[in-house]
Design goal:
4 strands; alpha+beta; about 30% helix; elongated
Length: about 90
C-alpha cells in the first residue's frame, strides 16, 4: 500500500532530524518512491510503499521523538477511477 507522509518538526530540533536522515535505512517491506524537503524548512514529504503494518510501524516509530507525521494512504487517481467504475460508482 502506498503512503504519503508529511513530517514536520520544531526548528529547534533540526539537528536531531538531520541525524535521523543520515541514518535513514528503510526496513524490509518499505520501498521509497520519492521524497522532498520543504525549502522553507521544517517539513519533509515522502511517498513510499509499505508491504505490511509491521513494516509501516518499524519505519515511522523511530521518528516519533523528533517529528509529527501526518500519514495518508494514497492511490494513483487512474487506479482509483478504475476501482470506482468496477464497483459501479
Amino acid at each position: 500500500m502506498l503512503f504519503f507522509d508529511i513530517s514536520s518538526w520544531d526548528p529547534h530540533d533540526s539537528e536531531k532530524v538531520i541525524e535521523h536522515f543520515k541514518n535513514l535505512r528503510p526496513p524490509a517491506g518499505i520501498t521509497i518512491v520519492n521524497q522532498w524537503v520543504d525549502l522553507n524548512g521544517g517539513r519533509y514529504f515522502i511517498l513510499y510503499e509499505a508491504e505490511s503494518s509491521e513494516a509501516y510501524a518499524e519505519f515511522n516509530i523511530p521518528w516519533s521523538d523528533v517529528c509529527v507525521i501526518d500519514s495518508v494512504p494514497v492511490m494513483e487517481s487512474t487506479d482509483f477511477i478504475k476501482l470506482m467504475i468496477a464497483k459501479g460508482l
